[in-house]
Design a protein that fits this description.
- With 176 residues, the protein is an alpha+beta fold.
- It has 3 helices and 8 strands.
- Strands 2-3-4-8-7-6 form a 6-stranded antiparallel sheet.
- Strand 7 (103-113) and strand 8 form a beta hairpin.
- It is globular.
- It starts with 17 loop residues before the first strand and ends with a helix.
Length: 176
């Protein structure tokens, strides 16, 4: 597992490198994925029209943008290059395992274009696909925001918790 990302990923495609976003990519992502929603996804059976396209909680972590993207078909953790970062292009679908504060996470390389034809690569880890039918738009946005916080949170361990989860260890601990 590597740490979040090196300043540049190895070039596997021969395509040009892509520079990072100086500010949050949320607005760009929302526009690009709304375009996909309208043109390609809206007729599919798992599409949830009530769920918005919403980029949530994008923040810089190790100089890369990390956040969650909620769409009418999926909820995903995304990473995009940050200010002064250069990612060499990689083939869509390539896997990359990264160490986040929450633990090891495997991402897939993705690519999307906006209405102006500008294409960008990103790393994506699906958290829910398809979106649960019972999820309301408000719950979906809250879940996306909480998911980013959880991904960037250090695991909490109870120092006083017994290391042996057997019933005997629990009873022994109480007798102290």
């Amino acid at each position: 597992m590597s740490s979040i990302l090196p300043a540049a990923l190895p070039d596997n495609t021969g395509l040009p490198e892509q520079t990072g976003f100086d500010t949050s990519p949320a607005t760009w992502l929302e526009a690009a994925f709304r375009h996909v929603a309208d043109r390609q996804m809206s007729g599919l059976p798992f599409y949830r029209a009530a769920i918005p396209v919403k980029a949530c909680g994008f923040t810089l972590f190790e100089n890369q943008w990390i956040g969650c993207l909620l769409t009418p078909w999926t909820l995903s953790l995304l990473i995009l290059p940050g200010p002064d970062q250069v990612w060499l292009s990689r083939a869509p679908g390539d896997r990359l395992a990264l160490q986040l504060p929450c633990g090891n996470v495997t991402f897939l390389q993705g690519e999307i274009g906006n209405q102006q034809g500008e294409r960008r690569q990103y790393l994506s880890c699906s958290l829910m696909s398809p979106v649960d039918k019972a999820l309301t738009p408000e719950q979906g946005i809250a879940l996306a925001e909480q998911s980013v916080r959880m991904a960037l949170s250090l695991p909490v361990a109870d120092a006083d918790a017994p290391r042996d989860p057997s019933r005997r260890a629990l009873f022994h601990r109480r007798g102290k």
